[in-house]
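User: Once you have settled down, look closely at the record that follows, taking as long as you need, and be ready to discuss the fold:
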Amino acid sequence: MLLTICGSCSPATEFTATPWQASPNGEWLTRVARYDTIGPGINSLYETVELKRRATGKGVKLLTLDEGSVMPTQLKGPPVITIRWRDANHVELAYRAGEVVYQVGKAANVFVEARRSDV
């Protein structure tokens, strides 16, 4: 009986993502993917920025933020990361909350700039 109760209480992870955003020359695509973990006593939120080449479709992770334990009402809000392409090979990532747990400075031929922002 105890196993049945614990089995039904395991946390669930929801995945949502913004639409892919193209670089100025259209070669690269980026998006923010969001992973909400919801369960008994656990409400956590991670956001990841993904980059992929339009021609191949295989992507890489550029940045991961851990927003830690959040209130259930915060789980459905807009992403905390904004993406701005400065040119065809330079993407700027601005985030307003969270702790950076993974970040790259360059992926393939794209320079990645990440910074904390109040916007």
